[in-house]
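ARCHIVE RECORD
Type: protein–small molecule complex
Small molecule: zinc ion
Source of inputs: curated submission
Record status: active
Notes field left blank by submitter.
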Amino acid sequence: MPVILAIESSCDDTSAAICADGVILSNVIANQTIHQAYGGVVPELASRVHQQNIVPAVQQALLAAKVSKNDVTAVAFTRGPGLLGSLLVGVSFAKAFALAKNLPLIEVNHMQAHVLAHFIGDPKPSFPFLCLTVSGGHTQIVLVKDYFDMQVIGQTTDDAAGEAMDKTSKILGLPYPGGPLIDKHARSGNPDAYKFPEPQIPGFDFSFSGLKTSILYFIQNNVKLNPNFIEENLNDICASVEKRIATILLNKLKRAADEYGIKDIALAGGVSANTGLRESLLAMGNKNGWNCFIPKLEYCTDNAAMIAIAGYHKYLKGEFVGQDVAPLARMPL
Ligand code: KG4
Ligand code: ZN
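STRUCTURE (tokenized, with ligand):
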């Protein structure tokens, strides 16, 4: 029975998980709060905190899974894409652990792992399915033909959907990371209070930079007229922005589903934790007869459980890498 230790350190969360025979036994995530003071992730600080967090995170993951270091049969790790300094900590730890215990190493692509988070529990989507992967760094519509046969059919030409959430929250004076706060305020707001533009981008690609600029001008103009505009209307602004981001994403997803004739539709990545997006996808799915797959909240944002499940499927294929493996800041699907 393969027991996989998985490590994720691509951005600002240090995570370790244990997976035995395809079942997740533990998933420990150490969040880094240090970046809040800077309004965004500071790469140099992120790698230093990963160094402090990685050993305790692995120890906790082993303890929670009731697995000894000696029971581990392979080590999976995020090779990329991500911040190079952050990745380097996880990759170095994985290599050192594998070397010390004479274990095989499994490299995992972070964006593939977000998609494969759907294979952690039940129900699982059937191949081929479409996955809208929306995170802080990526926005992709992926045609998933098999576990490791994925094709990006649409992606952002500028900002990612998570960036649009985080930049909007910055404009509104909310702390980083803003996505969860937009979500929180939007729950008490009117999504039709304000209308923001939907960009007209050909094919299945996205653009969020125009939306960001229009939100900035909208706020600046209204604050000139009423200095308390943001405080008085925060919930409505958040609900309206959230709705626009969700409709931009889902309208493209619907076009892709129609064109490819696919009914199994999945959502993945940090922004898939967004309540409005989750509800809108389910409503669209109901209308169109889709089978919708949305990960549990703990598997939406960055986590090592998704690295473990991806690692498990690579283990079954016997796909290992050598000790000379290095992290990749950019790593295509
Ligand atoms: O996948 P993820 O954890 O990290 C990356 O790989 O980028 O995604 C992080 C992104 C951030 O932009 C964060 O603001 C956004 O996901 N996010 C949310 C929510 N939770 C996290 N955005 C909207 N609503 C949420 N509930
Ligand atoms: Zn991610």
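CURATOR ANNOTATION: The chain has nine helices and ten strands.
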